[in-house]
């Protein structure tokens, strides 16, 4: 089923099982990111010839090229399109590998990176800033990412502390307190939107998520969080496989379950909080991309984590491309696109593989 | 190899184990019997560190478990649980390889040694031919062999069986039990097996430890422990003890014709009278 070992007699030398991340699938994932990023850089409201886009990029990374294009084009490619593509890719990768991590820890197909209140907390933080006078004093959006980040961290911390029973944090209580914290923050957001009708639209557009305010500072804001979280989480891939047994059996196999859970949840939540802070609440990616990856490449986290990150990156770059080019000059919120193209594809895979072992 | 001294343990607000003393030597097989709720599974949990002892000590291969890390403990003791989870989407070989976890560590990856140990465990339990099969296709007996292989791949000094065969048919019950015990003996492990079936306990164990209400009521040879008046008192049911015709071991049967119950025949008579 996993394409690991096909022959009747398995030789110990043929240890594909030890190196599950095949070069082929990794190359495929990388190629899809490069391809979608390339498309997204070439495509846009301004009609810039493809070779000029390439020359602009080369000039900016230091090649001695004579700039014979309008200055405006240079700014569009380097200050608008490139950070936007990079940000969409980073957010997509972050949501996808965080979702994989959450699903691995909770052993629940409905787990996603917003499960513990990250999204609702970030939403409340952002809403408070957008409706406050501060929004004007700092410029309408610059104060939003830090406020959203702080809101997300506070919400997850409250969820975690509420769920703790002595030294352990049972998974079910964690999910339920996440739901409770999320509802409280959601109620507060709705109330604030209703009582500040003139600001309801900017709040709503932030909540729906998107990359129309993408910029280099936002890329640099997200990058360290997602890079560090990935460096923490990815080495735990094999341990996440062990956690697919129940927690008692994982402990009897020598895994310090509570410590692993805490480490991975903190890392994934920080990365998700940073992603939400710079892009708003983009649904669907963190829930479905891990499932799609699992349906395509199997349940082994040593494959799932890197491949879901690559798939998430290319998926969100593509979705954002559609979001900004489908009906110019208005942009469709990217969350609508992710659901609109993601859900049918997911359903198709699910039906095609419904006899598959993964969801037995 | 395994020694438990004055062990108290349980769950918040409720001590289940109340002063357990028990020792299992290298190559010895001890069956743990007792009615539901007497603490057999809790004892296995306390030995493997899933719950923390309140008092007393557990020693695995001479080391006090309190001074061992989770990982070191898992290298000394492995469990074959009653209903082991075999996560979907992994082949049998990958499942058994998970047994190498305590030898690999949190962040490491499996190497050729681990694969060799996995292969040995799978050959010994006759599931090497299942290596590439997805677990969803396995029968109940095959699943338990895979779980046994996983525990053996752990290369423990102490093998703990927690009712590993209670949901299998008679043939598989006996075969899996026999296999686990033979492999445990061959590899010089101490085997502690919680079982419900008193006949299995009698036929395969060197000694039997009878638990009652969080304590060991009596430990000894099957002949010493499986006495009708003792079983009757602890299980609350009248029994007769017979000799197995070929092995001579004691066999416990419910005494159906007694005052407490009613045989189908006597039930029939009652109905006829009415």
CATH domain class of chain A: Mainly Alpha
| Fraction of helical residues of chain A | 55-70%
Report the C-alpha radius of gyration of chain B, rounded. Answer: 20 Å
**How many beta-strand elements of chain B?**
12
Explain this structure.
The complex is a heterodimer of chains A (360) and B (274). The longest helix of chain A is centred in the N-terminal third of the chain and has 36 residues, at 71-106. Chain A has one domain (23-354): ABC transporter involved in vitamin B12 uptake, BtuC, CATH 1.10.3470.10. Chain A is globular. Chain A is 69% helix and 0% strand. With 360 residues, chain A is an all-alpha fold. Chain A has helices spanning 23-42, 50-60, 71-106, 118-131, 134-137, 144-163, 171-195, 200-208, 216-233, 237-243, 247-252, 257-279, 285-297, 301-325, 334-352. Chain B is an alpha/beta fold. Chain B folds into two domains: 2-226, Rossmann fold, CATH 3.40.50.300; 231-274, no CATH class. Chain B is 36% helix and 26% strand. Chain B has helices at 40-47, 70-76, 92-97, 101-104, 112-124, 140-153, 170-186, 198-204, 222-225, 228-235, 264-273; strands at 2-11, 14-24, 29-33, 55-60, 63-64, 77-80, 158-162, 190-194, 207-212, 215-220, 239-243, 250-254. A six-stranded mixed sheet of chain B has the order 6-7-8-3-9-10, with helices on both faces. In chain B, strands 2-1-4-5 form a four-stranded antiparallel sheet, with helices on one face. In chain B, strands 11-12 form a two-stranded antiparallel sheet. In chain B, β11 (239-243) and β12 form a beta hairpin. The chains are: A mainly alpha (360), B alpha/beta (274). The interface between A and B is large, with 38 and 51 residues.
Task: Map the helices and strands.
The complex is a heterodimer of chains A (360) and B (274).
Chain A: H1 23-42, H2 50-60, H3 71-106, H4 118-131, H5 134-137, H6 144-163, H7 171-195, H8 200-208, H9 216-233, H10 237-243, H11 247-252, H12 257-279, H13 285-297, H14 301-325, H15 334-352
Helix pairs in contact in A: 1-3, 1-14, 2-3, 3-9, 3-12, 3-13, 3-14, 4-6, 4-7, 4-8, 4-12, 6-7, 6-12, 9-12, 10-14, 13-14, 13-15, 14-15
Chain B: E1 2-11, E2 14-24, E3 29-33, H1 40-47, E4 55-60, E5 63-64, H2 70-76, E6 77-80, H3 92-97, H4 101-104, H5 112-124, H6 140-153, E7 158-162, H7 170-186, E8 190-194, H8 198-204, E9 207-212, E10 215-220, H9 222-225, H10 228-235, E11 239-243, E12 250-254, H11 264-273
Parallel strand pairs in B: 3-8, 3-9, 6-7, 7-8
Antiparallel strand pairs in B: 1-2, 1-4, 4-5, 9-10, 11-12
